[in-house]
User: Fold this.
Amino acid sequence: MILFLLLFFCLQSLVLFCCLAAGNDPASQAISDQEQLEYIKNWMERKHS
Assistant:
């Protein structure tokens, strides 16, 4: 039982580490920022139309 819990927490920390590493990539961050700007621009256009 303890071994199962230990394995579970190790897998969770691995997934978290991979997500953090992927989020720190400058290229993916720039793409994400661009998508957010486009979404906000479209939302503002729809709101004021």
User: Anything to note?
Assistant: Residues 31 and 44 are 20 Å apart (CA to CA).
